[in-house]
Amino acid sequence: MHIDCFVTHVGLRERDARDKVIVVIDVLRASTTICTALSNGAKEVIPVNSIEQAMQLSSDLFADTTIVCGERGGVKVRGFDLGNSPREYTPGTVKGKSVVLTTTNGTEALVKSRTGSQILVGCFVNVSAVTEALANINEDLLVVCAGREQRFSLEDFYCAGMIINGIRETRNAEDTTVSDTASVAEITFRNYSDDPVKVLKDAAHGQSLIELGFEEDLHFCGEINRVPVLPVYHEGRITIHTA
């Protein structure tokens, strides 16, 4: 296995993703929200790039079983049912529903990864499920950090390093190689902090969410294995992987 890592989705091209096993990471907050929605009974999550696409798709689906959700600049889009705080995605709100989701960073990273052979959604709340699944494959892996507004984000890169480190500790090191970027992600994880919530509070994105009143989201998003599901993105929809 060779592991590569993109620090944001900006440079990701279709040919980079094609036929690769991919894990997309957007800790704050799309990945965490997707895990939470599916864990709490959502039928599926459908990621789209734009507000207009979200509104059009939701109107094309059955209104009583579909909710349209997402944010811009961290704040819920006017007229949407939910924003991008995972704490909003309760069983009473999402159970049995198709969740159409658009976010500033995460859903764009997912859509750009759509040509991969297998696409997983990862973050702190499901890190062990993702690491275990990836440690057992015998294909090259591409880790895609969503980043923040097309720039590097500490929290996604740190989480990437956590996953890469977990894979390399599980597998035989002799048959696992890493790119320079993947190596730096692993070093960041090993040397920065052993407290994910601290990482989130140190990160510029985390500080921005605190200013917007979402500090509790950082505690939710930073809890390791809080939502141990394995979301898989396939043919435009994200569902929970079942053995």
Question: Can you give me a brief rundown of this structure?
Answer:
This protein has helices spanning 14-17, 30-39, 51-60, 91-94, 106-112, 127-135, 154-170, 180-192, 196-202, 204-211, 215-221; strands at 2-6, 21-25, 44-47, 66-72, 75-76, 98-102, 118-122, 141-145, 177-178, 231-234, 237-240.
- First CA to last CA: what distance? 22 Å
Low-pLDDT ranges: none
Number of helices: 11
What's the CATH topology label? putative 2-phosphosulfolactate phosphatase
Residue share in helix:
25-40%
CATH class: Alpha Beta
Give the strand line-up of the largest sheet. 9-1-8-2-7-10-11
**Largest sheet composition:** 7 strands, mixed
Could you report the average pLDDT, rounded to the nearest whole number?
Answer: 95
Query: Which structural class should the secondary elements be placed in?
Result: alpha/beta
Count of folded domains: 1
Q: Can you describe what's shown?
A:
This protein is α/β, with parallel strands linked by helices and 243 residues long. Helices cover 40% and strands 20% of the residues. The protein contains eleven helices and eleven strands. It has helices at residues 14-17, 30-39, 51-60, 91-94, 106-112, 127-135, 154-170, 180-192, 196-202, 204-211, 215-221, and strands spanning 2-6, 21-25, 44-47, 66-72, 75-76, 98-102, 118-122, 141-145, 177-178, 231-234, 237-240. A seven-stranded mixed beta sheet has the order 9-1-8-2-7-10-11, sandwiched between helices. A four-stranded mixed beta sheet has the order 3-6-4-5. Strand 4 (66-72) and strand 5 (75-76) form a beta hairpin. Helix 6 crosses helix 7 (154-170), helix 7 (154-170) packs across helix 8 (180-192) and helix 9 (196-202) packs across helix 10.
